[in-house]
Amino acid sequence: MASLNTVTYPSDPADPRVRTLGELAVDYALSHGLVMKPAADGAQLSNAAGLAVHAPLALFPSPFPRAGFERALTIQPHLNRLFDRIAADDEFLETYLSSLIKADEFTRRLYDLYRVDRETPRNQRQTAVMGFHRSDYLLHAPDGQLSTAQTIQQVEFNTVSVSFASLGQVTTDFHRAIVLMVVQPNERNIYDQRFVEYELQTKHNINLVRLTVAEVTQKVKLDSANHAMVNGQEVAVIYYRWGYSPDDYNCEEDWTARGLLERSWAIKCPNIAYQLAGTKKVQEVLSRPGALERFIDEPAVCQQLRDCFTGLYPMDSSPAGRQAVAQALESPENFVMKPQREGGGNNIYGTDIPGVLRHMNESEQEAHILMDLIRPPKVHNLLIRNGELHHGPVISELGIFGAWLSDEDGTVHINETRGHLLRTKVESSNEGGIAAGFGVIDSPLLI
Ligand code: ADP
Ligand code: MG
Ligand code: MG
């Protein structure tokens, strides 16, 4: 038996009770649509054969301190507002992203699209912005033990391609318009996306069209007034589940398609400014003294947000940057190094950092940030993947969803906290993404 402060779970995968529960969990997942496409090169085969597997999940809810969970819910509307203000702040984005775009082609191309958007007069472009965000947290526990007093530390704030909890009210204004979801080819997480489609159809009578970027190139045209038209219908909202990684852009046509969508009248979720505001660089800048105050007037709110920030450092030629790099070389085990990328699997951890730095020139280094390594508490749980149970000390990452809809004139239509996601991974893995194959879906047992 593994003790978890307040609860005790069985831990032996061979325990007959555990095996029975594991079978029930898999049946539950399969019959409730908690499913994904199978992994591997069989993607095409599985599309044809209609195969699905259960999404990896935790057998028991992992314990999570109630106070930290509630803090994360409370600050979400402030974070939604903060990122809207950042995205609207030309000078801020230009100042802090200009150094990145020298070394990072991907960020530069996004930034070029942003400039086109900003240089278009207001009456010729869409000024409404829609955000669907997820702010991610780990608990910090240097001794590795879970305690109810532990504070949450923000891992990152995601503005692009966040899985949808509910489009719900956000789109009630757009009846009989259609929503365009831009997706990756051979998406394994298709059922998460289908939920959105069915909800929109049955509850709101809105059609959703899923297209890959290659299909966007073929099927989406701008009319003379820049309405994005597909099959003779105007697209009201574009929801990106694609476009956050350089791998998503395979050819020049893919960038052209992104530019076309950005220029259209459709409301983008997110628009390009939001995507840039969600970069790791911006997260680092926000942790500097006075940075939050540029966007938020209330000192108490700034304090609440700052309480969740762990140490973040530039890797540029500023004195702070030089000092941070020197520290990372001296005690790399305390740091994570991050490029401006999304989707998991891109970070450089601990003792790998010095070796990687040796092969980088200055401007490549500058396109990264350094972050203190958060050491989350380990708890015991059983994880089920492909029908198999694994016991292990595990680590949980809490994500809080935020929904936002506003206009550039300052009107905020929606600013809400919309649910949560707990992702759990075995302690030995650095990364926690579910689609990336590292983590499982869990739910918090508040303690
Ligand atoms: P991505 O945008 O690719 O998801 P993240 O910043 O979320 O990038 O990093 C991916 C994963 O790496 C996180 O889910 C977490 O498990 C781990 N990680 C990131 N930053 C830290 C940190 N400072 N301390 C400990 N683990 C971290
Ligand atoms: Mg991310
Ligand atoms: Mg992440």
Automatic annotation (TrEMBL):
UniProt cross-references to InterPro entries, sorted A to Z: Glutathione_synthase, Glutathione_synthase_a-hlx, Glutathione_synthase_C_euk, Glutathione_synthase_N_euk, GSH-S_sub-bd_sf, GSH_synth_subst-bd, PreATP-grasp_dom_sf
Enzyme Commission identifier(s): 6.3.2.3
Entry note: cofactor: Binds 1 Mg(2+) ion per subunit.
Binding-site residues, ATP: 156, 280, 338-347, 349, 371-374, 397, 425, 431
Domain Glutathione synthase substrate-binding residues, every copy: 177-277
Keywords: ATP-binding, Glutathione biosynthesis, Ligase, Magnesium, Metal-binding, Nucleotide-binding
Pfam families per record: GSH_synth_ATP, GSH_synthase
GO terms under cellular component: cytosol
Pathway this chain belongs to: Sulfur metabolism; glutathione biosynthesis; glutathione from L-cysteine and L-glutamate: step 2/2
Catalytic activity reported: gamma-L-glutamyl-L-cysteine + glycine + ATP = glutathione + ADP + phosphate + H(+)
Residues annotated to bind substrate: R134, Q193, R423
Recorded GO MF terms: ATP binding; glutathione binding; glutathione synthase activity; magnesium ion binding
Cofactor names: Mg(2+)
Matches recorded under Gene3D superfamilies: 3.30.1490.50, 3.30.1490.80, ATP-grasp fold, B domain (3.30.470.20), Glutathione synthase, substrate-binding domain superfamily, eukaryotic (3.40.50.1760), Glutathione Synthetase, Chain A, domain 3 (1.10.1080.10)
Binding site for Mg(2+): E156, N158, E342
Subunit structure: Homodimer.
Family: Belongs to the eukaryotic GSH synthase family.
Protein's name in the database: Glutathione synthetase
Native source species: Tieghemiomyces parasiticus
Organism lineage: Eukaryota, Fungi, Fungi incertae sedis, Zoopagomycota, Kickxellomycotina
Gene symbol of the encoding locus: GSH2_1
